[in-house]
């Protein structure tokens, strides 16, 4: 239920507008025991827009609230104020992989394919393409508990890409990548931009700024365009 006078958390954006837009988002955490609880504001006025065919970077120091903002954009965390608008399917790659230790890579793709509502043939086709793009098909029948950190990172990203989302939200996606995988990642991201997809990448620093269309910084709970 929406409080009187407050806009809904998610609104339908116009077809010609941004695929993702957040305006004046605020979030405060409450910490400490009940009798001495304190309010810690993390986001006070965070805004961002993402349009078809662009790659946007969201940067900020550790603890600046980047991951909190990302979770609000995805819809996995409530906000205290502001409006979020989304259009199309969203793929989300969290900083910490959400993987099941005793399931294989194939089983993860099958499980997530069902969650996305994909039919078996679509899941199989997309999975095969992702194995090829990130070069980890040889681990298709390997359990997550036996995978290296880098291969887990590939699987984590692959699961976000499985439904070919219009909007891709990535939280520190290439932290565990080797150089070859890093280049493969940017090749894929550039292709998605050319196809009119939108990509938002969170990082505490940007090494290859020329790869982005825009950079937005998060400072003291507020966003600032570079």
Class from secondary-structure proportions: alpha/beta
* Continuous helix count: 5
Number of strands: 10
Portion in helices: 25-40%
As residue ranges, the low-confidence spans are 1-14
State the distance separating the first and last CA atoms: 37 Å
- Give the overall shape, derived from the CA principal axes: globular
Order of strands in the sheet with the most strands? 6-7-8-4-9-10
Which value, in Å, is the CA radius of gyration?
18 Å
What does the average pLDDT come to? 88
- Strand proportion, as a percent range, falls in 25-35%
Elements, N to C (H/E): EEEEHEEHHHEHEEE
Q: What summary fits the major beta sheet?
A: 6 strands, mixed
What would you note in describing this structure?
- The protein has 226 residues and is α/β, with parallel strands linked by helices.
- It has a domain at 99-165.
- The chain is 29% helix and 29% strand.
- It has helices spanning 66-74, 105-116, 120-134, 149-161, 179-194, and strands spanning 10-12, 20-31, 38-50, 54-59, 81-86, 90-93, 167-171, 198-203, 214-219, 222-225.
- The strands form two sheets. A six-stranded mixed beta sheet has the order 6-7-8-4-9-10, sandwiched between helices. Strands 1-5-2-3 form a four-stranded mixed beta sheet, with helices on one face.
- The chain is globular and about 50 Å long.
- The termini are far apart.
Characteristic terms for this protein:
single chain, 226 residues, alpha/beta, six-stranded mixed sheet, four-stranded mixed sheet, 10 strands, disordered N terminus
What is the fold's blueprint, element by element?
Elements: E1 10-12, E2 20-31, E3 38-50, E4 54-59, H1 66-74, E5 81-86, E6 90-93, H2 105-116, H3 120-134, H4 149-161, E7 167-171, H5 179-194, E8 198-203, E9 214-219, E10 222-225
Parallel strand pairs: 1-5, 4-8, 4-9, 6-7, 7-8
Antiparallel strand pairs: 2-3, 2-5, 9-10
Helix pairs in contact: 2-3
């Amino acid at each position: 239920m929406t409080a009187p006078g407050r806009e809904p958390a998610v609104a339908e954006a116009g077809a010609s507008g941004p695929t993702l837009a957040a305006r004046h988002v605020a979030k405060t955490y409450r910490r400490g025991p009940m009798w001495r609880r304190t309010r810690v504001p993390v986001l006070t006025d965070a805004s961002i827009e993402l349009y078809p065919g662009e790659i946007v970077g969201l940067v900020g120091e550790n603890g600046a609230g980047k991951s909190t903002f990302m979770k609000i954009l995805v819809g996995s965390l409530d906000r205290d104020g502001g409006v979020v608008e989304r259009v199309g399917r969203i793929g989300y790659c969290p900083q910490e992989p959400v993987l099941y230790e005793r399931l294989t890579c194939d089983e993860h793709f099958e499980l997530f394919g069902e969650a996305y509502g994909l039919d078996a043939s679509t899941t199989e086709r997309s999975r095969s393409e992702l194995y090829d793009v990130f070069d980890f098909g040889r681990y298709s029948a390997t359990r997550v508990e036996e995978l290296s950190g880098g291969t887990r990172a590939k699987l984590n990203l692959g699961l976000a890409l499985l439904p070919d989302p219009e909007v891709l939200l990535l939280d520190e996606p290439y932290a565990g990548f080797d150089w070859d995988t890093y280049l493969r990642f940017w090749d894929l991201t550039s292709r998605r931009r050319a196809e009119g997809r939108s990509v938002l990448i969170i990082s505490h620093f940007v090494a290859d700024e020329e790869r982005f269309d825009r950079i937005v910084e998060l400072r003291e709970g507020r966003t600032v365009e570079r």
